[in-house]
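Notebook entry, structure prediction.
Reason for the run: the old model in the group folder had no record of what sequence produced it. Starting over properly, with the input documented here first.
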Amino acid sequence: MLETLTGIWGLFISAFISSTVAPGGSEAVLAYLVSEGHHPIVQLLVVATVGNTLGAMTTWGLGVMAAKKYPVAKLLPEQKQKALALVQKRGVWILFFSWLPIIGDALCFAGGWLKLPLLPACLVIFLGKLLRYALLAWVFV
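New structure, fully documented this time:
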């Protein structure tokens, strides 16, 4: 029982951290847990996706706070300026790609900076992350 909870919480924490500016290895944790076969795959997908989405929404919230203090986009590093322009051009749907390494965090930050609608942003982010984790789980079944 304790091992089961440790695995699930480890996945959640890894997924959360992986979706903030800190590096993490949620894909490796998910792949390991799927290959072990001790947990239902749906449970693992939900835990990983919710943790990763909450991490992304934390980054989104940081973007909202940064926009209040620094409303001028020129203060951003070049990578985040590119993400800001991309999000401005494509809107909430670009957040589907928030699962991408490096640029995904910047997209979430830019979405918050631009004050994209919270619920649609969260749903699009969730969907992108769910599909990525589902593909990964399918590979390791």
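Summary: Residues 100 and 129 are 9 Å apart (CA to CA).
The old model has been moved to the deprecated folder.
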